[in-house]
Amino acid sequence: MAGDLGKVVGFSPAYNEREGIDRVISAMIASRLVDDIFVVDDGSTDGTADVVTSFPSVRLIRHGTNMGKMEAFLTGIREAERAGAQVMFITDADMRGLTGVLTDGIITHLTDRPDVEMVRCPYYQDLGGGDNEVCPPEYSGLRAITRDVWQRILSGLEHDSKYRQIYRAHSIPEPMLDAAVSEGRIVDLDVEEVTLISRRAGGGATPLGKIRQQIRQAEDVIRTRSMIADYTALLHELKLRGDPAFAGLSNDGIRELARELDDPDMDDILRASPTAYAKHVLDLRTASRNPGIPFEGRADLRRQARMLSVDEVPKPPPKDADAGQKKDKV
Known about the structure:
Elements: E1 8-14, H1 21-30, E2 36-42, H2 48-53, E3 58-63, H3 69-82, E4 87-91, E5 95-96, H4 100-111, E6 118-120, E7 123-128, E8 131-135, E9 142-146, H5 147-159, H6 161-169, H7 174-179, E10 186-190, E11 195-197, H8 208-240, H9 251-261, H10 267-272, H11 274-288, H12 298-305, E12 326-329
Parallel strand pairs: 1-2, 1-4, 2-3, 6-10, 7-11, 10-12
Antiparallel strand pairs: 4-9, 5-11, 6-9, 7-8
């Protein structure tokens, strides 16, 4: 979208952020690129709304009760869609050091590059007592996204189980944002001047340990959904080929076997020899239902499966962790 910004909105979700939200609002007002600013007050009880309404140009949207950051985010992107925005700048309400110049720099890294759909900004989290911890970009509440990203999320929540599973599993939006953008269309932008104040230090940040746990849970949901879909497609293909081992499976039987094949401990075997492994699981399942044949359970399945030939399908080359990932600095 280089050369044409369209409408840019600034957005901050807030819960009990009376002591610091004026700073992020002032930074967005000072931006030359932000056209409209709104705050979603997620049921605050400390007077956060009073601070927001002291800025006449800022719109306040209130949740009657505390619904969580995920719901505040969804309210925000729906409002951006209603406003006809093309770009959304997102900041947690307890950022320190954010300025209008930094806000414009983050937005510009998005709008000047047509191949980029999201900018994520790592920053320091002030834990109190002189302790700091770097917040990695995948956990960051400081971002800029294009309209395509939030439209993908809104549509996905209606039509795609991946987004619904992430929504049910998490109270924060970061896993959903990352799931909506392919890796090569993300820029991670260092903003060393910005610090987020943790609750331990008097701010409102979710502890990074909890965010990491939720990110891992989201990754597990996505991996499981993807793997089961792959196994289901493989079993349908084997059935269509007339493979006698799978010819008698109904569609429900295929789905049941696909779920049984899903096992993180067996991913290397599945990648190397999926057909042989599927047949092996089917044989063992049949054997387990025959009282005349002993069946030692899943541990035995893994032990026997690792004895399979692994030359049916070559293993993929190791993935470079930094491949396709852009890294910039303001």
